[in-house]
Structure formats: structure tokens, C-alpha cells
Amino acid sequence: MEVVADNSPTEVEARNWVNLHKTETGHSWSELSGLTNVPGSTLSLFASGKYAGRNEPVAEKVMAYRDRLAVQAEIATDSPQVPDWYDTPTAARLTKMLRWAQSGKMVLIVSTPGVGKTKTALRFAAKDPNVWLATMAPSAAGVATMAIEVGAAIGLGEIKGSPQMLSRQIKARVQGRSGLIIVDEAQELTDKALNELRGLHDAVGVGVALLGNEKVVGQLDSRKSALAQVSSRISLPVVQNGPLAGDLDALFAAWGIVDERQRAFLTRVGNLPGALREVTMTIEVALMTAFGLDEALTLEHLRNAARQRNVRLPGL
What one-character-per-residue DSSP string does 127-186 give? Predict the structure, then answer.
């Protein structure tokens, strides 16, 4: 016997909305299940008006999902739009390094946080199918776990097996492709994992770029260490402490910051730990306040934003 759901106003509204939302987004019932916390089969039956169980709880979860999307859309509309990309002297410098590495070299790029190292690597990788970015974490410190992350980055999916088997699969995939493996957060890797990357480079000639913080320099500093073979293969190390001249000017231009007092204040923020990232976040918070008050951005908005973010600036 066909079941027809009760047609309470909430249920009708939820049913109509979820059917329209599915059509507009192209989501499957399985995908919508994860977003609404309603089993996909239940959601499908509810949407067709044939669910035999209690329809009201399903409708409530659908409407809660709709409301959440509405709030997120409102926040997105009111929030300042962070520029997707802007060219900086640092980005230009690091891009040249990555191009050099792709010619089959090993390079080391070390910087303080917030100068755009990772964004530059992401953009470089997005433009070339033979450039792969693998980001390390403490959980990926060892040889096998590092290889799993690299395997996923180069498109092997969830590879399994011994470290030797993983290495063979990676070598087979990258050999002869004039590729570059960018390893971000390389300071998380053990000496053996770094040596494994060196072995990969030696075996198939793939370029390797190690990106990280000053801890990597300490790891590679001594040629008497376990990483002597890695150190000897670094053709071009770059260590950058803070933003380059011109980086902040590029950021100000991207955000449309022209007031000299505002630029001077933000330049002080940019010379602190966090660099361009801290400046960006300070501008975002300040603009949120200014937009909420329907005011133009002022120096006081920026100063208050820096205080809210606990920026350690003398005289703030």
C-alpha cells in the first residue's frame, strides 16, 4: 500500500525546498544525508511524500539545514572579501625557486609564517598537472606515512603496502614526467623520511621542493648528520625572515588600503610574527566592524581589530 505523508505546512515547505535544492545543487541523496543528518533512503522517501515514519523530525532537520545555509550566505555577503591572489616580490621569488626545482633539482624554501609560501606553492601546483603538493603533519612524520601523503598528492589514492612497495608505486607514477613534488611543512618529517625523498629524487630525477620553517635548517645544517646526503643535494636553499620590501604594498593595493596612516600601522603589524597573514586577518576583523556600523574603514577600526587579535604591538 502506498504511503502518503501528512501535509503539515512545515513538512510541505521542507519537502518542496529539499527537492528544489537537490535539483539546483546536483547533490545526491547520500550527499544530502551527510548535510542534514537524515539517512539518504529516508530523505528520498520523505521528498517523494512516501516516508512511512514520522515526517515531522525529518522536516525539522531539513529546515535546520536550510536555515544554516541562509546564515552562512548572509555571513558571506557581509564579510569582507579576501583577495584570492595578489602578486608579491616574495611570491615571484618563490615561484622562480619552484621552476628551478622542476628542472630536476632539490631546493629548500624556509620562511617565517605568513609570507605566502603555501599560497604560492598551491598556485604553482594548480597550474601544472605534473606539480604535486603534499602537506605533512606530525601524523605523517615517518617514511611510510610520508609516502602515503605523497602518493595521495600524485593521484595514487589510498595506497597501501610496505614502505618499499609505496616507494616503487610513487617512482613509477612520477618517472619521466618532468615533475615536481612540493613537500610543505617539511619540518614535521623524520630524518629517514627526508632521506626517502632524497632517494626518490636520485632514483627518477623528479624535482623536490622542501618547504618549512627554521627547524628544517637545523635538521639539514650539519653535513656530518644523518641528513648529509640530503644537504649535499640542496642546489638552492632560500631562508627568508619576514616579508620582502614590496610585499605589504602589494597587499595594501589588493585590499584598496590607500590611507597613509592605515598603511603605516599595518606595516608595523606586518613586521611582527605572522607577517602578511596577520595583516590580512586584522583588516578582515576591522572591515567586519566597519561594515556592521555602515562606516568607512578607519585607523581606529584597525587598531581595535589588532587589540581583539591580541597583536603584540608596542603602544597599541
Answer: T-TTEEEEE--GGG-SHHHHHHHHHHHTT--S--S-HHHHHHHHHHHHTTS--EEEEETG
CA distance 182 to 185: 10
Quote the CA–CA distance of 51 and 43 in Å, as a whole number: 8
Of 2 and 20, the one with more pLDDT? 20
Question: pLDDT for 276-294, tens place per residue?
Answer: 999 999 999 999 888 878 8
Give the confidence band of 2 by pLDDT, cuts at 50, 70, 90. Answer: very low
Instruction: With CA atoms as reference, report the closest residue to 58 among 5, 113, 111.
Output: 5
Structural domain includes residue 2: no
Give the integer Cα–Cα distance in Å for 28 and 31: 5
**Does one domain contain both 204 and 284?**
no
Sequence letter at residue 223: R
Mean pLDDT, range 59-66, rounded to an integer: 94
Same domain, residue pair 71 and 106: no
Give the count of domains, the chain: 3
Q: Which domain holds residue 20?
A: 9-78
- At which residue does the C-alpha cell 599595518 appear? 266
Q: What is the mean pLDDT of residues 147-164?
A: 93
What pLDDT, in 10s, does the model give residues 222-268?
A: 555 666 777 778 877 888 989 998 999 999 999 999 999 999 999 99
DSSP conformational letter for 114? T
Handedness of CA 39, 43, 44, 49 (dihedral sign): positive
Q: In what order do the strands lie in the sheet with 131-135?
A: 131-135, 180-184, 207-212, 106-111, 234-240
Q: For position 209, which CATH number holds?
A: 3.40.50.300
- Do 202 and 256 sit in the same domain of this protein? no
Q: What is the pTM of this model?
A: 0.75
